[in-house]
Amino acid sequence: MEEVLQPLVAAHGLVRTFGAGPGSRRVLDGADLQVEPGEMVALLGRSGSGKSTLLNLVGGIDRPDGGTVEVAGLRLDRLSERELTRFRARHVGFVFQFFHLIPELTGEENVLLAARLTGGEPERRGRELLRRLELNGAAGRLPHTLSGGEQQRIAIARALVNEPSLVLADEPTGNLDPAAGRAVLEILRGIARGGRAVIMATHDREAAALADRTVAVVDGRLQACPPG
Ligand SMILES: Nc1ncnc2c1ncn2[C@@H]1O[C@H](COP(=O)(O)OP(=O)(O)OP(=O)(O)O)[C@@H](O)[C@H]1O
Ligand SMILES: [Mg+2]
């Protein structure tokens, strides 16, 4: 008998509208997405198509106007705000498009803050991630003294330190040179290979080529892209 994998992410019929009245805009309009453990999925689509909007819904940062999101067997619409916060802390690593580092904390403190909430082992992982992302020089400095690429890598280390089952990465290579970008992609690849899952919004062809499959947001829905 074939083994049936439970999808890690199952989103059905997602609708998200911004604004009200005649100026309102329906950004997502019946978007479906299913992601299995072990998969790395690239999310394409032109600027403003709704990639970040979709990641926010899947990560429980925002709620849809219609449709359902299930992650790791949990229906997000059935969770209270408090339960959603716990869900995110346990299951989701978010790499934001605009980093959202805490300005008063150094790079390393930003990474280790997430680890300290659970304690022990994650601190060692945090330091290991900083080393792999070649951030040893940047780790002790405040975010406003770091380059965009350094801030981005700090944000990536922070998202990964608690080994979330689902990593949502919004343009994770957008500010990086090719070598730094490749290091990030290799880390994300390794996460998927380890049985977790990565959904990565990107405009970067090289990043998309490393994914197991590619989907695009077109007119508010998700379309599978042909391989290659
Ligand atoms: N909180 C919000 N309030 C109003 N409009 C919003 C909000 N968030 C997103 N939008 C609008 O929804 C559309 C999709 O935005 P989104 O950020 O999801 O696009 P994107 O595909 O991530 O684009 P990019 O590639 O530029 O990051 C845009 O037109 C944007 O202006
Ligand atoms: Mg975006």
Quick recap:
The protein has seven helices and ten strands. It has 228 residues and is of the alpha/beta class. The longest helix has 16 residues, at 178-193.
List the helices and strands and how they pair.
Layout (H helix, E strand, L loop, with lengths): L8 E10 L6 E11 L4 E5 L6 H8 L7 E6 L2 E2 L5 H11 E4 L11 H10 L4 H12 L15 H13 L5 E5 L7 H16 L3 E5 L3 H6 L2 E6 L2 E4 L4
Parallel strand pairs: 3-8, 3-9, 6-7, 7-8
Antiparallel strand pairs: 1-2, 1-4, 4-5, 9-10
Helix pairs in contact: 3-4, 3-5
The structure holds adenosine-5'-triphosphate (ATP) and magnesium ion (MG).
Structure report:
- This protein is α/β, with parallel strands linked by helices and 228 residues long.
- It has a single domain (37-64, 73-224), classed as P-loop containing nucleotide triphosphate hydrolases (Rossmann fold, 3-Layer(aba) Sandwich).
- Helices cover 33% and strands 25% of the residues.
- The protein has seven helices and ten strands.
- The protein has helices at 51-58, 81-91, 107-116, 121-132, 148-160, 178-193, 205-210; strands at 9-18, 25-35, 40-44, 66-71, 74-75, 92-95, 166-170, 197-201, 213-218, 221-224.
- The strands form two sheets. The protein has a six-stranded mixed β-sheet. A four-stranded antiparallel β-sheet has the order 2-1-4-5, covered by helices on one side.
- A hairpin with a 2-residue loop joins strand 9 (213-218) and strand 10 (221-224).
- Helix 3 (107-116) runs antiparallel to helix 4 and helix 3 (107-116) packs parallel to helix 5.
- It starts with 8 loop residues before the first strand and ends with a strand.
- The mean pLDDT is 91.
- It binds adenosine-5'-triphosphate and magnesium ion.
